[in-house]
Design brief:
By secondary structure, the chain is α+β, with helices and mostly antiparallel strands. The chain has 2 domains: about 5-135 and about 180-215, Aminopeptidase (3-Layer(aba) Sandwich); about 135-175, no CATH class. Helices cover about 20% and strands about 30% of the residues. It contains 5 helices and 12 strands. A 7-stranded mixed sheet has the order 1-2-3-4-5-12-6, sandwiched between helices. Strands 8-7-11 form a 3-stranded antiparallel sheet, with no helix packed on it. It has a two-stranded antiparallel ribbon with strand order 9-10.
Amino acid sequence: MPEKTKLKVDWCSHDAAKYACLHWHYSKSVPVPPLVKIGVWENEKYIGVVIFSRGASSNLLKPYGIEQSDGCELTRVALDKHTAEVSKIIKIAIIFLKKHNPGLKLIVSFADPQYGHNGGIYQAGNWVYCGDTQPGKEYWFENKRLHSRQVSEKGFNIQQGQVRKTIKPSQCNVIKTPGKYRYLMPLNKKMRKQILPLSQPYPKKSNIDNNKNEKI
């Protein structure tokens, strides 16, 4: 009989998370901090990272009537070759996160159809799909995709009270993008009851095995 896959998650260093993002994620980038970095080991081998953050917008959680400190965004799943389904890896990472942050109420994440993702990993994990976002833009600078908070006409912006240098849009290759699919994972019964009325039918699967290959 084949050996049973043994999964383990734990905190990992920034260097380990960065390695995973640069080598095993299509964006080749690390999300903008602050970050919660949960490493993943399969049969005692490091295979990548699941990253949670405050998200791109300070308004991420306002539609659901909760404060920024009450939830987070799942911003990266960067994995090397692995056996376990991505939805299972995300599930145990969320359990670990919730254990260390018992006050969290909601996780938000997005699937990008521009890269052939429809959220199969969320559908397999019973997340709530609540429609798509407005079309947006991608900024590319020196063959690297930038987060929206890394781009500003002023050449800087303020993040978490600190002034950070940014790239100007005029320096970038700007690409128009379709809206992303928005998924929600409630972390308690009250939040699940609140967001279930927002639920819509899942987007149809593409011709890839989303739960094995799809990344965030």
